[in-house]
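subagent[fold] <- orchestrator: predict structure for attached chain, return tokens only, no commentary.
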Amino acid sequence: MRKYIKVVVAAFLLIPGLHAASQKRVSAKPGKITPADTAIFNQVQRQTFRYFWEGAEPNSGLARERIHTDNIYPEHDQDVVTSGGGGFGVMGILVGIERGYITRLQGVERLEKVLQFLETADRFHGAWPHWWNGKTGKVKPFSKFDDGGDLVESSFMIQALLCVRQYFEKGNAREKKIAARADQLWREVDFDWYRNGTNSLYWHWSPNNGWKMNFAVHGYNECLIMYVLAAASPTHGVPAEVYHQGWAENGKIQKPSEKFGYPLQMHHQGDVQNGGPLFWAHYSYLGLDPRGLKDRYADYWQENQNQALINYQWCVSNPKQFKGYGVNSWGLTSSYSVKGYAGHAPDEQRDLGVIAPTAALSSFPYTPVQSMAAMKHWYNNMNRQLWGPYGFYDAFSIQANWFPTRYLAIDQGPIVVMMENHRSGLLWNLFMSCPEIKTGLKKLGFSSPWLKK
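subagent[fold] -> orchestrator:
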């Protein structure tokens, strides 16, 4: 009986329109959601979680940057772990506990290992590098001059650690210690240092190369969470003008546009059209709840949902006539590509005929009906080509007859987390309950239902 009740409740949580606003502009609508579809939902979330549990690097407990089931690794990097994707995996561990994929004790033991690694591995003014060697904790350069702190990827990890703190802060003595250790790591990130003496936040700093990367982060892209955390930091916070002058470029971040009848409010980084790669609607919002989140520049729920709907409608319209696109198969974002890695997006230049399942699956809160239709199709009709030990493989192209059996942490992680946020709001509830985050959002001029609680 208990199992039956869970299925019915889960099915209710997937009812079309429960979280989404009207999607009447989309002409081709997939069918209704059934309990059988919910079983697929459960299977996909659980299987994807395995990437971060069974597939984790054993010494650090963190997610490997990539897993190739064909055992062909570039630069022999199967020992490389990632701070951003690892952070997504830390959030996934909380999902695993809540869903019963692992016991609470198992989660505690894994998080203790992760915290030990984060406390002792290379850090740079409190920020971690993009990559480490998981066996040694030493930085592995992400590129020629990127051998130091990566504030963006570190922010993804801090977003996760704050969720861990909130999850365990009222637990037993062992769990309270986990919460305290996570809190200490958050307090040690020197956001003010990463201003480089300006009113912007810089992505990189290296003890060997200083500010040579010279990447001041301006919006709009995946980095909103970094500016929110910087404003919220109780120890190394930055003033509000860093957000308004740096991220928002004194209002230049706004550049209204429209595609398929869906308005966008933001000027997207690099003059990308039609909303850009879909991960921009995911990474910052794994913890930062976009529902009702607004400031002088945007309504972030509307921005994210419309970006997802444009992405969907582009694939339905399929202006480049690629094989395999349609109402049941869509989603363009940064992922593996037929040639290397690419920022796939809904425009003539960036649409390369490659679909990445993470794009649709991580958009469940925004497009529950369209995301479910894609998941059902891939699971039921393309299982042999797309499904592996850690869920759907990273990307594929029917046009190119290209079906690599490879995974990326930074793509698998948002699937687990955003599917859970759609179901229960778990990570949104944890992150937004942080008093510092509420203070930081108020400081920057945001409004949110959470700020009234």
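orchestrator: received. Logging for downstream: The domain at 2-452 is CATH 1.50.10.140 (Glycosyltransferase). The radius of gyration is 20 Å.
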